Amino acid sequence: MRKFTTSVIVAALSLATPAFVQAQGAAAPSEAQTPAAKSNTTIRSIKVVDLSELQPEMRSQVEAFASRSKEEDMTSLRKSLDALPQAASALKEKGLSSAQVVAINIDDGVLTMFAKSA
User: Fold this and answer.
1) How far is the C-alpha of 49 from the C-alpha of 23, rounded, in Å?
2) Which residue among 9, 16, 37, 92 is least enclosed by CB atoms within 10 Å?
3) How many CB atoms lie within 10 A of CB 27?
4) What's phi and psi for 42, nearest 5 deg?
5) Quick one: which of 104, 114, 112, 113 has its CA closest to 9?
6) Residue 97 belongs to what domain range?
7) Terminal CA-CA length for the chain
């Protein structure tokens, strides 16, 4: 579970930078990398997960992360998601918007967006 939390934090921070929105992928820096050492990760697929679909333990971890996030970081994350047409489309297909996204995870080319519906 610690790996999940770390990757959500790292993914959220990487989305907060303008370097995220690229033609083919996203920057996913590890905590030890400098901006010049960032490796590009291609987003091959996107998943949207409603928090209500998660097991209680995982849901509480995502909610705990979201509660610690600064509002300006969340605003930046949501703007980045809106700027990524595939992400905006995936959210729209589920009847959601970036305003409902509380956390993300990027792992092995899969962008997972965790959202709270109504």
Assistant:
1) 24
2) 37
3) 20
4) -85, 130
5) 104
6) 2-115
7) 26
| Nearest-angstrom CA–CA distance, 78 and 47 | 15
pLDDT, tens digit, for every residue of 23-33? 233 333 333 33
Using an 8 Å Cβ cutoff, are 61 and 4 in contact?
yes
CB-based contacts of 32-36 (< 8 A; 24+ apart in sequence) = none
**Strand runs (DSSP E) across the chain, as ranges?**
25-27, 40-42, 45-50, 101-107, 110-115
Compute mean pLDDT per 10 residues along the chain, 118 residues long, and list them: 48 40 34 39 90 92 90 92 94 94 91 89
d(CA 14, CA 71) in angstroms, rounded, equals 16
Give the separation between CA 18 and CA 111, rounded to whole angstroms.
17
Q: How far is CA 88 from CA 5, 95, 105, in A?
A: 23, 11, 16
Count: domains in the chain: 1
Q: Which two tokens stand for residue 16?
A: 């907060």
